[in-house]
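Q: Protein A?
A:
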Amino acid sequence: MPKGRKRKAGKRTASGQLSRAGERVKPSDWVAARQERFGNHYSSALGRAYISGLFGKGPEAKERYDAGNKFALRYSKLIGGDSYSCPLGDGSGGTGVTDHERDLHQQEWLDAARKRLDDTGGRPYLDQLILKTYTDTGPYWLDAILDGEGTAAHKLLLKAAIKSLDTVGQIKDAEPVDIPLHMCNRAVNA
């Protein structure tokens, strides 16, 4: 009869120790389908619109995406607002060295971008693309366009959002985006 305690059950390493590797958690079918459709951009409205080609073609599309991302990151960092944290935990817990000059420069850029948006009335449309509330789905008009059920009204909202991205990124002489008709089945040529 063996003496001592029983050996713990579980996968072991080559040296005989218990493996510390956790079990791989796979995404749900819904998340996997979205990852397949949108790639790494599946978790933001801005990314879903960009990867689907709704911001146009060529370098202007990337400029629009980058302008929206830049605005969202700086707004989130400097002003705050809505916050979304992963239910699995953030885990960072660290603090960094604050660069006050960089923060001041970012604040000035953000203030200028917000003023341009306020002057043109484009802020609500940009917000719908960058708010963290729309990590999985939404805004409703973007989902409708991506699902091929967009209407003329949805198309107008998308055009307003694109114009606000151009305003933030100071993209001059941007070509108007032609939203493919297959994405707006019920859209009337506007």
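Q: Protein B?
A:
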Amino acid sequence: MTKFVGLLHLCTPPMLKLPSIFKTQKHRSFNFRPRYYDADKEAFEERVRRIESELGADKSDLEATKLRIRQKFQNRRSGTGSASNKASNIRVLVILGILGALAYWILK
């Protein structure tokens, strides 16, 4: 019997806090500062850096290489491959259409 009372004591939830209208909890606040991104300005600065590196305006080869690599990654990400994706999607839709028509003809 004492073991059961001990287990009952372990299973009871802790005392819940009673709500109060006089002292309410304050909300959490975060130090969030939104950033502003200007894509046109970024592209312009990148063109200026590329032109300066091509003209040799006190830039090392390492900086020019970093710029070229960054540009290639951005070009890949920006949607240069979207034309190939579009062609692939059209091809898949045509194949599905043909298979659907063939299945309809066989099951008819």
